[in-house]
Amino acid sequence: MRAAVLVFPGSNCDRDVAVALRAAGAQVEMVWHKETELPGGTDLVALPGGFSYGDYLRCGAIAAQSPICGAVARHAERGGYALGICNGFQVLTEMRLLPGALMRNAGITFLCRTEVLIVGTAESDFTSGYSAGQEIALPVAHHDGNYAASEAELDRLEGEGRVAFTYAENPNGSARDIAGVLSENRRVLGLMPHPERAVDTAHGGTDGQAVFRSLVGALADA
Ligand SMILES: NC(=O)CC[C@H](N)C(=O)O
To answer: Which residues participate directly in catalysis (predicted)?
Structure first.
């Protein structure tokens, strides 16, 4: 499986995602945001966490206008996979590849701690390594993680089984406790928690590993 990890000015989890993907068996290339094409044969685009463009305007809003994002949109249109973690999730909503928006945390403060999540669905190539209803622990680190969408959109996400993860104890005010959502074709996942920060026992937990292993397993022959 070939993965492209995007790097924006202010990304700070790009290398962590690359390490997690490589450990799961992926071939990884780092791609600077000024590129206009993805490397040939890219199966998965990973949009990492961080503070792209210093979070000016809105988190992810400027990064979503980067030259590389045109290529990401075309990749997704062709049915390619994309994984947006934290700031990457914010970029994917700004690009409208995922519904909704990430607003300021309800408590205003930056949250940096480990949260218990509930897996909403195992029916995706990102979550097939978990079981629905499973509780996992992943770190969060954000100030704009408060997921918002219209009631109709939220009903649709839930009805179509596209809520990938919810918080056991909602830390940021997210609508319906949502921590991560899937696109309609289930090939784009955005989530605020950081699975790449939980892939090694030295991280204090390995509950994030299944995301990367599920993907590599599903795309092994791709
Ligand atoms: N860790 C991250 O990716 C943080 C995303 C964004 N800068 C926020 O604070 O909400």
So the answer is: 86, 194, 196
Residue 196 among the catalytic residues? yes
Q: Which residue has the tokens 């990457």?
A: 88
Q: Which residue has the tokens 């909602």?
A: 170
Residue 222 confidence (pLDDT): 56
Q: Can you give the pTM of this predicted structure?
A: 0.97
Amino acid letter for position 90: Q
**What's 39's DSSP letter?**
P
| Residue owning the nearest CA to atom 9 of ligand 1 | 142
What pLDDT shows up at residue 105? Answer: 97
pLDDT of residue 79: 97
Q: Which of 75, 142, 194, 203 is catalytic?
A: 194
pLDDT score at 177? 98
Name residues whose C-beta falls within 8 Å of residue 136's C-beta, 6 or more positions apart in sequence. 116, 117, 119, 130, 207, 208
Pocket test for ligand 1, best of 11, 15, 142, 191 (most atoms within 8 A of CB): 142
Domains, the chain, ordered by start: 2-218 (3.40.50.880)
Distance between CA atoms of 196 and 20, rounded to whole angstroms? 6
Q: What is the position in ligand 1's atom list of the atom closest to the CA of 88?
A: 3
What is the distance in A from the centroid of ligand 1 to the CA of 143?
A: 6
Compute the distance between CA of residue 28 and CA of residue 17 in angstroms, rounded to an integer. Answer: 10
Q: Which of the residues in the chain have pLDDT under 70?
A: 221-222
